[in-house]
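Margin note from the TA: students keep mixing up input and output lines. Inputs are the sequences; the output is the structure of the whole complex. Example:
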Amino acid sequence: MVTVELERVRKSYGKFVAVDDLSFSISAGQIFGLLGPNGAGKTSSIRMMIGIITPDAGAVRLFGEPFARRHLHQVGYLPEERGLYRKITVRENLVLLGQLSGLTARDAIARARKWAERLDIAQWVDKRVEEMSKGMQQKVQFIAALLHEPQLIIMDEPFSGLDPINANVLKDVILELKEQGRTILFSTHRMDQVEKLCDAICLVNRGRAVLQGALREVKASYGSRFVQIAYEGDGRFLSRCALVESSNNYGNYAEVKLRPGADSQALLQAAMCGAKISRFEVMEPSLEQIFIDRVEKASA
Amino acid sequence: MHSSALRNTWIICKHECFKRVRTRSFLITTFLMPGFLAFVIGIPAVVGAHANHDNQRIVLACAREDLAALIRDGLIDSATNSYHVTIDNDVSPAEHQRLESELDDGRIDGVIWIDADSIEKGRATYERRTARDFIWQQLVRNSVSGGFNRMRMAQSGLSPTQIKDMLRGADVDIRISGVKPGDASRDAAAIITVLLLATVLFITLLSYGVMIMRSVLDEKASRVIEVLLCSATPDELMAGKILGVGAVGLLQVVTWGTMGLAIAAPRSTLPMAGHVVPLSLMIYFGIFYLLGYLLYSAMFAAVGAAFNSTDEAQHWNFVIISPLICACTLITPVAAAPNSTLAVIASLVPFCSPVLMYTRLAVESPPAWQIVLCFAILIGTIYVVQRIATRIYRIGILMYGKRPSVREMFKWLSYA
């Protein structure tokens, strides 16, 4: 079953086209990454999915039906920036947002307490939001998005402001939600997390989809033209070698993209002429490499 | 309205209301502000009343002792404060010069000069160091004139009893048709109370409108609005906010009113304060507060949504409050001439009518057609303003960055 479907959606603000003929779909139970540089149209796409704005053209479908506000009780939204009232307590924030999502105040309090214990912020429930650190506020925001047990969870930069330990806790929760069959949409720049968590991606640039599909397939389609080299000595072989299409050199470590048809063994020989090679690995491209490659191509 | 829309509006309304009622600032403004205002207004009045007159040293230089005594008695009888009137029978030019120099040096505060020529012509001179005490000047005028009258009557052979009898005059009992006769101080209290209520109307409309604007700006800046919009529509959010903040305002006004009645009641021999402010006026107050609030709050909400900070919204803020300030400055002229053309027109202008029609109703009963027309125009304007404001709000709350121009805001009206 398809949880979210955008079909040839378009949204413009005056002359500026924020989303242009964008189509993608997210299957139930999937973790989906919506990626793109700043101003690519990610936020506008999300806003159309949750009915904050309406598309100028095209269709948005949730849970297999044309968008209707009643679907929103099945959607949890975690915005990029903290969307909480700073002057009131965590409990008051969660009760308000829970009630607006269809819960009773009593249910909202009970669920909030449970989640607060799980995320280790139980002692902060009666404190005002402004007294909390950014990371803790992010946890509260996370709880607010999950309080009403939505089937679709939309998260804009969910790990921002979190230290590695708390990011790991949240990652575990997300995987748990996936196991429960919930659908999760990430909008992020953190490619490492997308790569570890997502089943499918859609890369948007200037309002258009430039790459999409299951993550495995996307990476496989790029072939094995990427090489990681750890070396000591002269790294000028990277700029001299005709086999190299592009490279990202860190001084004693480099990520190299070979030209189509180039032989990786020939690159190894060229590298060994001027430098001592401690590691040479032919691999699938990282999502970050794909992201940079596609955005640069699309912008060229 | 759909039941979920009503539910969301009610949830937002409750949240907005309780969030404010529990704050320290609400408790302070509700319970301490009236006392503070009374202090701020009352203390200068009391101090001024005493400071202006205390230890006023007046020299009454008069060629006739009997006239001087009559004038001094008049002055002392008329003045409620302590004046020191010294009679000086020397009316020579040298004495005049000496008194003028004492006046210049500040050793005395005023000189009433009545020499033989003045007595003959019936003309006196009153010289003061400053011109600020105009009430005292009127007292001097009345006392000197009264003294001359008494002196002339005595000269024509009338006895002091006859003179007193002739100058007894008559009390004028002023009554307002349709109002039970009360004593003058009560009627004055009634007028002051309704004018005070008109001012309260102005202050509450302004302060709660600005409160809404700040609240919307805050939600926009903190991005709470994005989360709220995932569960509620902009219309529900705006309606809930306006109703919630309006309820806080109403609660505050009712609390002030109850406190006022509780303070006034023990001093009143009549049942409650119905005599001071008739029940009908209290009902009108409630109606005009609600209508005025619905009109202004929608505009403030739209401005809050359209801009990114209070500084940016400042210009439009001023545009909105201008008619309210205008209405406030017209309270006194409208109360003085409630049926003048200015009063009739101004009280029909919807942005002024909550304050000015209420003022007219308080001091006189305007024709029924004017009241009906006022309500019709006001309600029609509220409908139009609410529709425009909702459209600006819908778009504005999601617009960040550059301050929108008027043209852009007009464009927004066509988006929704």
